[in-house]
Amino acid sequence: MRGAYYSQTKLLRRNLIIYKEMTHLLLIKGDCLEVLPHIPNECIDLIITDPPYNIAEGAVPIYDTRYPKGKRRKIGLEAEWDKFTDEEFLRMMYKFIDEVYRILKPSGTFICFTSDRYLSYLRTYIRNKGMVYRQTCIWQKVNPVPQMRKVKFMHATEFFFLVHKEKGHDNFRWEHGQHPNVFYHPIVSGKERTGHPTQKPVWLFSELIKYTTREGDLILDPFLGSGTTLVAARNLNRNAIGIEINDEYINMAKRRVAPEQRDLFGNFEFYFHDWQTSSQAIISEFISKLQKPKSI
In angstroms, what CA-CA distances link 237 with 48, 59, 215? Predict the structure, then answer.
């Protein structure tokens, strides 16, 4: 009996370890401004995202001339989902930041890509909310796309900002070493490329996640796109929620974090829900899965 007791205890401990190491990924199809109000208060460790910020404004069709006429595909950005007036964009972002403030933990971090034309407006609004705008950062593309129209320099930088919810409660992982606020990395190419026009490198998001979270933390990307945040979170053993409204990009994300990849990337569970047909309690139910039992 005593031996059986110790065997059962050992098995239970092993199961708890497996449960603790399990990574949970949730993909929701829906409009983030409709979904976010249903996320509980102060439950997210990191919000990292790349919302549409009007870079399609004034875009003209650019075609890949490697192909014969009639078969050339567009390579310029003409996405309708990325066309706003400045007033529409800022109104959307202010509403979004209100939700960011509510759902971030006191020690939470907010990282958001945007255009330099909006930085001052967003920085002012964030500070007026009582959050700590730490700094503006830059992704320096070492292989920028050539300027097809030849009227200006190549666009080789993208801006993003680092914000902490409360002063003195930040979760910055300085033990990973000093790092400048400029990140040098190529644009996505090769097998990593999905066809999303503004896809971000997994390496870049992995670096940002590594410096702002710990294993088992919960990450949210409300403008998921092709799923880079879920991929980086899975690789780093972080739990994550991604919200995306576009069917094409949802399918991209599903392929990149498919359950059949579990053998390659460890122990994780992937869930998908359509916000229009699912219970609005799915997020609370998902977060409840992350409550880890105490080890014996």
Answer: 16, 39, 5
